[in-house]
Amino acid sequence: MKALGRLLRTTAFRMTLVYLVVFAVFAAFLLGYFAFNTRHLITEQITSTVDVEILGLAEQYRQGGVRRLVFIIDQRARRPGSSLYLVTTPTGDGLAGNVGTLATGVLDTPGWTETTYRRLEEADTAVHHALARVFLLPGGFRLLVGRDLDERERLFEIIARAGRWSVAMVIVLGIGGGIFVSRRVLRRVDALTNTAHTIMAGNLSGRLPVGGSGDELDRLADNFNAMLARIEALMHGLKEVSDNVAHDLKTPLTRLRNRCEEALRSAKEPADYRSVLEATIAESEELIRTFNALLMIARAESGEARDDMTEFDAAEIARGIAELYEPLAEDTGLSLRVEAEAAPVKANRELVSQALANLVDNAIKYARVEVRSANGKPSEILVTAKSVNDRIQLAVSDNGPGIPEGDRGRVVERFVRLEQSRSRPGSGLGLSLASAVARLHGGELQLSDNAPGLRAVIELPRAPAAGTG
Amino acid sequence: MRLLIVEDDRDAADYLVKALGEAGHIADRAPDGVEGLALALDGGYDVLVVDRMLPRLDGLALIGTLRAKSVTTPALILSALGQVDDRIKGLRAGGDDYLAKPYSFAELLARVEVLARRRGGPAEPTAYRVGDLDLDRLSHSVMRGGKTVSLQPREFRLLEFLMKNAGQVVTRTMLLENVWDYHFDPQTNVIDVHISRLRSKIDKGFPQSLLHTVRGVGYMVREGAR
User: Fold this and answer.
1) What residues of B are in contact with residue A354 (Cβ under 8 Å)?
2) Which of B183, B186, B196 sits opposite A350 (nearest CB)?
3) For the packed helices B190-202 and A314-332, what is the interaxial angle rounded to 10 degrees?
4) How far is A325 from chain B (nearest CA, A)?
5) Which of A99, A122, A353, B221 has the fewest CB atoms below 10 angstroms from its CB?
């Protein structure tokens, strides 16, 4: 019973019912219209036949008087399937014809009338319906000519029966078809729902079954599967972030707490407290910084920042960031050079700027100042922007220790820092952010050997229309 | 100056009221958006400090309502959401500045002081003068003690911003935002190096320094030693 209830509630079944009603009404209307028109046509035929006969008989009466009229009617009335005839005297006594009894009063009013009658033949005593016309002849005689209506009623009856049957058939077939279609749909939806339930129960790697026929349910399942893949990736990212946060934020937090406890226990002078507090603020600032970087990466990875895309020339970014870092590089004892060609891109300007800034910042941190080029000039950090086919590249090259090939995949993960860089300041998030930003825009971060040093390239899709390249 | 702090976190608000009081300012506080709006509408405040997420009436809606009623009191938006697009939304809603939580009080103070000053001031003058340092915005020229100082375009804009807010502390973040238009954290203090370059051009060889470092906060251009 419950299964039937579910069946009756399906959209497919409800649609079937709606169509059923529409078709039934339509069929009934069509047959009704047909019946009405047929009836009208038959009536018209009768009236014109009767009119012609009356005209003919009136003419005979005019030429040969009542005797001739009676003679002709007697003749006609005897033919099989004849019309109805009756001629009476002005007082109403029948002179000739094949009509036995008539409804009372019919003869008193000339003109068209629908009436019941009995035939004169004795074999037929049934009451019939007829359409008749009463005509007043000169001299007070009355002439009635009519046609039996049984034929018309029979036809009408046949059509009505056909109508009832066809409506019954429409209903039976419609409900049957509706149940059939609904059950098919319901079975497939049930399969989808069951899989969805197991996925919701926690197994995010489950996927909905796809029938393979490419129908609307398959397309729905395909889209749901794509959505599930995205959710799985996001959940994975979230888990990774929380693991990292747990691991790499707790360490400095512990340090911070230890320092405060130590101060409470052993500090004596206000100056001691002061120095601990200052160190605490500095450390908390570092924590906030790390935290912000993490959030930024998470945001870039979630794709949320896609709303802020604008078209601009990446060469401006390269020049801007180079200009920002150039004094710092020079102070460190490095030269920072920029080579920027037009590189139109549609991206989140702020994020791309930050990604490039991170790369330049890294380059300055790791560059080896003591190594000078052959002609004694300071070692160089090169920032470039250019278009390569349908991509644009923002690159930063340095002459530092570089990253061994085996570690290049690893360093873009959050908080990964190579052994030799542990001693240097930094959160280990710079490359992660650059990589996340590149991926957000459908590009990638490439790390390669600058022999010696590192060449880091942010490659992004080139903006289609803008610029000449 | 008189400030209105609209912040639902009692501790944070009390701390701000106290610290602003110590800095010589009077601050009122409102615990939610509706009360904040009522106070801001008839208060005669110099600056509003509005938390973005407030009970009863959201901070952006509060500022939007004020602006719709032609109340132009400068507003600093505080938000736990530090992202770029959130900042843009805040400024679009009628906020004048945006500060992400957690902030340092020095940063907040510097920003509200700049906001308060921007309010009363006349239209931006075409030239600034601090001591014997002159900056002409039309001819893009800088003179110290009557001698021309040659500056790079960015150094000029840096000095222009500092002189526009002369006597006022400006933080590194404010400089990065206003002079470079970057809203991210550049990890290393790149700004310091720019400042020391600028300082070597305008202060070097003169008995009196005009460009001062305010320890732990930022920088300030002013006449006379501190």
Assistant:
1) 182, 184
2) B183
3) 70
4) 6
5) A122
Query: Of the candidates B21, B23, B67, B30, which has an alpha carbon nearest to the alpha carbon of residue B50?
Result: B30
Q: How many CA atoms, within 13 angstroms, populate the side-chain half-sphere of residue B216?
A: 9
Give me the interface pTM, i.e. the ipTM. Answer: 0.83
Q: Other C-beta atoms within 10 Å of A177: how many?
A: 14
Dihedral of CA atoms B72, B73, B76, B77 in degrees, nearest 10, equals: -60
Cβ contact B188–A358 (<8 Å): no
Query: Rounded CA gap, B24 and B113, in Å?
Result: 11
Q: Between chains, do B186 and A324 touch, taking CB under 8 Å as contact? A: yes
CA pair distance A458, A433, nearest whole angstrom: 11
CA distances from B37 to B31, B45, B180 (A): 11, 12, 34
Note the pLDDT of residue B50. 92
pLDDT of B170 reads 92
Question: In degrees rounded to 5, what are phi and psi of residue B180?
Answer: -105, -15
- Chains A, B: CB contacts within 8 A come to 63
Give the nearest chain B residue to A298 (CA atoms).
B83
C-alpha distances out from residue A267 to A156, A262, A270, A272, Å = 114, 8, 8, 6
Q: What are the tens digits of pLDDT across the range A320-373?
A: 999 999 989 888 888 889 998 888 998 888 889 989 998 998 888 887 766 665
Instruction: Find the residue in A nearest to B198 (Cα).
Output: A327
pLDDT digit string, tens, across residues A35-61: 888 888 888 988 898 889 888 888 888
Give the whole-angstrom CA distance, residue A51 versus residue B71: 95
CA dihedral A92, A94, A96, A101 (to 10 degrees): 110
DSSP per-residue codes, A187-207 = HHHHHHHHHHHHHHTT-TT--
**Nearest partner of A353 among A458, A445, A454, judged by Cα:** A458
Q: From B177, B159, B171, select the one nearest B215 (Cα to Cα).
A: B171
With CB atoms and an 8 Å threshold, state whether B190 touches A327: yes
Say whether B184 and A357 touch across the interface (CB within 8 A).
yes
* Residues of chain B contacting A327 with CB distance shorter than 8 Å: 190, 193-194, 196-197
Is the backbone of residue A83 left (phi > 0), alpha (psi -120 to 50) or beta? beta
Rounded to an integer, what distance in angstroms lies between the CA atom of residue B76 and that of residue B99?
7
Which B residues 136-175 touch A at CB under 8 Å? 154
Closest-CA distance of chain A to residue B158, Å? 12
| Among chain B residues, CA nearest to A286 | B187
How far is the C-alpha of A114 from the C-alpha of A147, rounded, in Å? 10
- C-alpha A359/C-alpha A365 separation (Å) is 10
